[in-house]
């Protein structure tokens, strides 16, 4: 089994190469972070003002972060908490940002298709399965929530266990929410596509160039300095690694496995609609998809949070987590025996209110964006377009989407952060255990309390 090394997608694809920054200098805009957020922001800025000299600085290599290691759901699922956004901007603004997510998902697919660039896109929608009565009750309540926010049958609906089996045969399934609004992509190919577009657009790309200090008007890369009137921070889950920013975004860890390739008979047996993204409804959430080369990838378990906002070592996953993820596959499809051939993990950035933000401080010239809490593949493009509008002083309404707001309050100091994050994860595991053994359709009180503490 290949464990770590940035994960399945990076192993499957040729690495992306760029030079490091070698001398001090200046640019019109410096962007810190070479994931979707940083790169899309660079491209959106270039489109808004072709005269800009833009430099992107990546600490490791392009695609090192979550953008090169994720589950490949390019979806228009709502990102962040609707009630948080509505409190600041009103209902219409929330509806507007959700419409824009759907448009953005289509735009990403269409643009690469028109350019003849393969990002492994296949439209399959998403399925969220319920396997217990409380899970089904939560899906019903989630559906009611979607309806109250104007999402109709054409975007999401509830199906029973029999209807679900026509699309995927999951052991013990009692129902599912299904939606057509998700495109399966190869996340690394998508990242490469964005890098190549940025390169072709004349954007300066530097890898192995870790920013060690950020101040108004300049960033430092070790002994070098790059001066710029405008600086963008697109470091998402890695933001805690920047001096003085340890509590802005919780780096939540998510682990994944890719199984061996299944043969045609096995796929026929489990009947998985080829490109549908699959997720669960337990409190300890799982998500997955079929890979283009015929594997199941499943993610979700693992050590959710490392003390002091620490990061993984090149995506290495402990043995227990691999076994736990293999157990999910076996539990969904008993007897399949699809052991892991790849295991990896990555970090996603979670703000204190679980909702994205684009914080533009024109005084300091620093714009920070991110906080998609595990749903950034589509969202990063939308946030980037809004960021570029703000940075260039455009009066396009995109500059007023509700994600444009001050960064939420910081997370608690250690050891509270560690106790909270890991304690909540433990509580959710216990809640799942209780619900699986109960005949009641009610969500466990433990999970309800945990939700309140987590602020979700
Ligand atoms: C396992 C996993 C599965 C996921 N699945 C999905 C999914 O299916 N669908 C979905 O929508 N979202 C998913 N996500 C979330 C999604 O991948 C992220 O929201 C998105 O990639 C964030 O992009 P980003 O560019 O903001 O951050 P990143 O891709 O993390 O990029 C940040 C970059 O900044 C660099 N950096 C950090 N510090 C510095 C520094 N000091 N100097 C220079 N560079 C620095 C990092 O090396 C990194 O490359 C998943 C995330 C994980 C971890």
From TrEMBL:
Signal peptide (from-to): none
Domain FAD dependent oxidoreductase: 28-390
Gene Ontology annotations for the cellular component aspect, listed alphabetically: cytoplasm
Cited InterPro entries: FAD-dep_OxRdtase, FAD/NAD-bd_sf
Protein name from the UniProt record: FAD-dependent oxidoreductase
Organism, scientific name: Agromyces mediolanus (Corynebacterium mediolanum)
């Amino acid at each position: 089994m290949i464990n770590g090394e940035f994960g399945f997608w990076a192993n499957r694809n040729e690495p992306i190469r760029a030079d490091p920054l070698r001398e001090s200098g200046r640019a019109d805009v410096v962007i810190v972070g070479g994931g979707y957020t940083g790169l899309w922001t660079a491209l959106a800025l270039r489109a808004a003002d072709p005269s800009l000299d833009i430099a992107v600085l990546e600490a490791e290599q392009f695609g090192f972060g979550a953008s090169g290691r994720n589950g490949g759901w390019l979806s228009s699922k709502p990102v962040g908490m609707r009630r948080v956004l509505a409190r600041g901007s009103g209902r219409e603004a929330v509806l507007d940002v959700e419409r824009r997510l759907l448009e953005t998902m289509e735009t990403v697919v269409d643009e690469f298709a028109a350019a003849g660039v393969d990002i492994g896109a296949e439209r399959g929608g998403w399925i969220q399965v319920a396997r217990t009565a409380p899970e089904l009750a939560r899906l019903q309540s989630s559906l009611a929530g979607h309806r109250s926010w104007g999402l109709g049958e054409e975007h999401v609906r509830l199906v029973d266990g029999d209807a679900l089996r026509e699309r995927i045969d999951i052991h013990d399934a009692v129902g599912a929410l299904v939606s057509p609004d998700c495109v399966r992509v190869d996340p690394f190919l998508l990242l490469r596509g964005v890098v190549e577009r940025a390169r072709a657009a004349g954007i300066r790309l530097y890898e192995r160039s870790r920013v060690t200090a950020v101040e108004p008007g300049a960033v430092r890369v070790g002994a070098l300095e790059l001066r710029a009137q405008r600086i963008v921070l697109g470091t998402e889950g890695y933001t805690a690694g920047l001096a003085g920013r340890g509590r802005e975004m919780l780096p939540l860890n998510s682990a994944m496995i890719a199984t061996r390739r299944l043969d045609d008979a096995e796929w026929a047996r489990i009947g998985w609609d080829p490109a549908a993204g699959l997720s669960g409804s337990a409190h300890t959430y799982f998500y997955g998809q079929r890979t283009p080369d015929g594997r199941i990838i499943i993610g979700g378990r693992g050590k959710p949070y490392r003390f002091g906002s620490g990061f993984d070592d090149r995506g290495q996953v402990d043995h227990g987590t691999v076994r736990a993820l293999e157990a999910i596959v076996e539990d969904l499809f008993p007897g399949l025996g699809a052991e892991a051939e790849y295991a990896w993990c990555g970090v996603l950035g979670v703000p204190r209110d679980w909702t994205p933000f684009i914080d533009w401080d024109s005084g300091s010239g620093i714009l920070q964006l991110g906080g998609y809490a595990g749903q950034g593949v589509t969202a990063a493009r939308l946030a980037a377009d809004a960021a570029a509008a703000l940075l260039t002083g455009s009066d396009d309404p995109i500059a007023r989407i509700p994600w444009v707001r001050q960064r939420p309050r910081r997370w608690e100091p250690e050891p509270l952060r560690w106790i909270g994050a890991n304690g909540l994860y433990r509580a959710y595991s216990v809640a799942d255990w209780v619900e699986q053994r109960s005949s009641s359709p009610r969500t466990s009180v433990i999970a309800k309390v945990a939700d309140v503490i987590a602020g979700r």
